[in-house]
Amino acid sequence: MKPFIHDDFILHNKIAQEIYHSYAKDLPIIDFHNHLSAQEIYQNNCYRNLSEAWLGGDHYKWRAMRANGLSEEYITGNAEPFEKFLAWTTTIQYAIGNPLYHWTHLELKRYFDIDETLSVGNAKEIWDKCNEKLQSSQYSVRNLLRKQNIEALCTTDDPIDSLVYHKKLKETGFEIQVLPTFRPELAVGIEKEGFTHYIEQLSEVTDLSLDHISDLLDALKLRLSYFIDAGCRISDHSLEDNFFEPTTYEEVDAIYRNKLNGAIISNHDCAKYRGWLLTELAKEYANHGIVMQLHIGALRNNSTRILKNLGSNVGLDSLNDFNYATQLSALLDAMDETDQLPKTILYYLNPKDAEMLATMAGNFQANSIGIKGKVQLGSAWWFCDHMRGMEHQMDVVSEAGLLSTFIGMLTDSRSFLSFPRHEYFRRILCNKLGTFVERGEYPEDMKSLELITQNVCYYNARNYLDL
Question: Is the pTM of this model over 0.85?
């Protein structure tokens, strides 16, 4: 009987199979957006068991387990590791149609060479087999990365981070590039409760008095230079509410100083502040060749009850449905007007925004230095990174722009076992390309198909990030 994860898994025609095995399968991986810990990579420890490696911090799995009616004790609580694993098994065994089912079995196959599908009946056997391997130094954190042929990965880091472990990794000569991402979310989030405290922390790190908005911008520029010295090639911003209204420096400075003095800031003033600061930061990104990511549309921390008990980033987020095309156009235009729009990746969380963002990207592609796909529709993100979501994103990019300039997949993950998601993406891409040919919508031009495939899977990202 053919194993579930076999050579031609989700490759549904001969052309797709040839494209994947000949052109995509063996390419290195550049994972340019994730939430991995540089400290864990530097320390290079082994996981104690499969629950720690698989379930710790993975809110994708936690949401599925809650949907299965499991007590929090078995999800984020103090149950024994095997009990947690068994609880996960009872969930994943019946997760038909969920990408977690495919990811789980790709991870079992690629890391542990296990062909069986996980069930309550074989859970103990698989638990023992995986745990035995995890105790070996061949399964340390760095070796888990090596097993998936990772060439470079970009963590997500706050401007006040010392980046000490990124630097130590470089000093040790670790062959995989572990690069920081500049994410000034707490500086941009003037509406957040801890904003004033964060400004005090940033002031301490930079040894600057941040009394005016110009001082804050100077501090962020200083930290951006520090990040660039540590190898930073990309920035990241999460846009979850109104983020642009026309304003002036004087007005934004007054908004900033009012906030520091304890005033409550209106939504309109928050949008003015965010838009002004994003525009100024983008100019710095453009000057230094730093890519700007805009992740748009999360509605976070919806369950007050669980938030109080567990904190954020535990699976309480979902899609927002606010409309922002006019704001985004104005924001990008404010950057582009002075020809200081950086290379930009636009991610949607709500699928309704896909076509809007793809066509918006097309408005701002013109540049004099030959950047292909300067403004990108980013890969299917978070709640969209399943088979249907990835296919939809590829269709939209193809129809509204050029799939051949797309920079491909990322994991957006906190797990060191998540990298087979790149294989999943590559298989879906190759099946999409093979289907175009099979249906007579593109010629059987294998040279062109090779170039498209390899660029989307690897070379476009390498070139886009100037790695």
Answer: yes
**Non-local CB neighbours of 260 within 8 Å, separated by 6+ positions:** 196, 199, 211
Measure the CA–CA gap between 431 and 465, rounded to whole angstroms: 27
Contact, 434 vs 13, CB < 8 A?
yes
Q: For residue 345, which amino acid is it?
A: I
Backbone angles phi, psi at 344, to 5 degrees: -135, 135
Rounded-to-integer distance, Cα 262 and Cα 250, Å:
19
**Cβ-contact 66, 388 below 8 angstroms:** no
Distance CA 206, CA 427 (A): 46
Give which of 208, 190, 188 is closest to 261, Cα–Cα.
190
Find out whether 154 and 129 touch, Cβ atoms under 8 Å. no
Q: CB 267: neighbour CB atoms within 10 A? A: 11
Look at the block and give the residue holding tokens 């991402």.
Answer: 181
Residues 269-286 pLDDT 10s: 999 999 999 999 999 999
Grouping H, G, I as helix, E, B as strand and the rest as coil, residue 97 is coil
Q: Which tens digit of pLDDT belongs to each residue from 377-418?
A: 999 999 999 999 999 999 999 999 999 999 999 999 999 999
Q: Are 187 and 229 in contact (CB under 8 A)?
A: no
Helix (H, G, I), strand (E, B) or coil at 236: strand
Residue 168 contacts residue 248 (beta carbons within 8 Å) = no
- Alpha-helical runs (H) found in 135-266: 141-147, 164-172, 185-188, 195-206, 213-229, 249-260
Q: Quick one: 442 exposed, middle or buried, by C-beta within 10 A (0-12, 13-18, 19+)?
A: middle
Rg (CA), the chain: 23
Instruction: Annotate 15-40 with b (16+ C-beta within 10 A) or e (fewer).
Output: bbbbbbeebbeebebbbbbbbbbbee
Q: Is the dihedral of CA 132, 133, 137, 140 positive or negative?
A: negative
| 57 — pLDDT class (breaks 50, 70, 90) | confident
Contact 256, 213 (CB under 8 A): yes
Strands (E), 105-172: 150-154
Residues contacting 357, CB < 8 A, separation 6+:
296, 328, 346, 348, 377
Count of residues making up the chain: 467
Q: What is the pLDDT of residues 299-326, one digit of tens each?
A: 999 999 999 999 988 999 999 999 999 9
Pull the structure tokens for residue 352.
């309704």
How far, in Å, CA of 202 to CA of 200, rounded?
5
Looking up tokens 């904190």, which residue turns up? Answer: 311
CB contact at 8 A, 48 and 134:
yes
Name the nearest CA neighbour of 189 among 159, 162, 211: 159
Residue whose C-alpha is closest to residue 419's, from 151, 182, 113: 151
Phi (first) and psi of residue 298, to 5 degrees:
-85, 140
State both tokens at 65.
């387990």
